[in-house]
Write a structure and sequence with these properties.
Mean pLDDT: 86
Order of helices and strands: EHEHHEEHHHH
Number of helices: 7
Largest sheet: 4 strands, mixed
Distance between the termini: 54 Å
Shape: elongated
CATH class of the largest domain: Alpha Beta
Radius of gyration: 23 Å
CATH topology of the largest domain: Glutaredoxin
Number of domains: 2
Structural class: alpha+beta
CATH architecture of the largest domain: 3-Layer(aba) Sandwich
CATH superfamily of the largest domain: Glutaredoxin
Length: 193
C-alpha cells in the first residue's frame, strides 16, 4: 500500500478537531483518515506548529513552501509525490490516490451533523459556552430543535452510563457497610455552582 503524508497548516492539536469552533472539513477529513487506516493505508499527518521538523526535513515540502507560501497547506503527498495542494481531499479522492477499488460510500457528515455532534460533546463536557455557540450555529444551519434535543439526549445517555457503572461498582465493594448505615442520613456536599 502507498503511504500518504499530509502536511497541514498550524493547528492547536494534531487533527484540528478541538475547541468550540470545529471546522467540519477537518472532522470529515479525520474520519476519512481513520477509514483509510482501516483499509491498511499508512497515513502520516504533520502539523506545522507541532511537527515543524517534518516540513524542514522534506525538500519537496520545504521548496514548495518557499516558492508558494503557507497558502498551499494542506499539502498531500503519496509515496513522496505531491498530489494535492491547498485543500483536503474527499474520501473518494483519497481512495483513488492509493488505488482502492472498493465502493466508497458517500459521506453523510455535513455542517449540520457536525453541529449536532458538537452539541452532544458540549453536554458531555458540561461546557455551557460550547453549547450556546453550537446551538446558535445549528439553528443558523436550519437544524430543528427536535434534532438538537435528540443529540442532547443521546449525549446524556452516553454520559450517564459510566456514572451508573461506578455506582454499581461502589455498591459491590461497599454494600455490607451501606446496609449497616441504613439509619444514618446521607449528607450532601455543598453545591459548587
Amino acid at each position: 500500500m502507498p503511504q500518504i503524508q499530509v502536511f497541514e497548516p498550524a493547528m492547536c492539536c494534531s487533527t484540528g478537531v478541538c475547541g468550540p469552533s470545529v471546522d467540519p472539513v477537518l472532522v470529515r477529513f479525520a474520519a476519512d483518515v481513520e477509514w483509510l487506516k482501516g483499509q491498511g493505508v499508512e497515513v502520516v499527518r504533520s502539523n506545522l506548529s507541532q511537527e515543524p521538523q517534518d516540513f524542514a526535513s522534506n525538500s519537496a515540502i520545504r521548496d514548495a513552501l518557499q516558492e508558494r507560501g503557507v497558502e498551499i497547506l494542506p499539502l498531500i503527498m503519496v509515496d513522496g509525490q505531491i498530489v494535492r495542494e491547498g485543500s483536503y481531499p474527499t474520501r473518494a479522492e483519497l481512495a483513488a490516490y492509493v488505488g482502492l477499488q472498493e465502493q466508497v460510500a458517500p459521506s453523510i457528515y455535513s455542517a449540520a451533523v457536525a453541529e449536532l455532534v458538537a452539541l452532544g460533546a458540549a453536554v458531555a463536557a458540561n461546557c455551557e459556552p460550547c453549547f450556546r455557540a453550537h446551538y446558535d450555529r445549528a439553528r443558523r444551519l436550519g437544524v430543528s430543535k427536535e434534532d438538537m434535543w435528540l443529540a442532547v439526549q443521546t449525549a446524556q445517555a452516553v454520559k450517564d452510563e459510566p456514572a451508573k457503572q461506578m455506582v454499581k461498582l461502589a455498591t459491590r465493594y461497599l454494600k455490607p457497610a451501606a446496609e449497616e448505615l441504613d439509619e444514618l442520613q446521607v449528607i450532601q456536599p455543598n453545591s459548587c455552582c
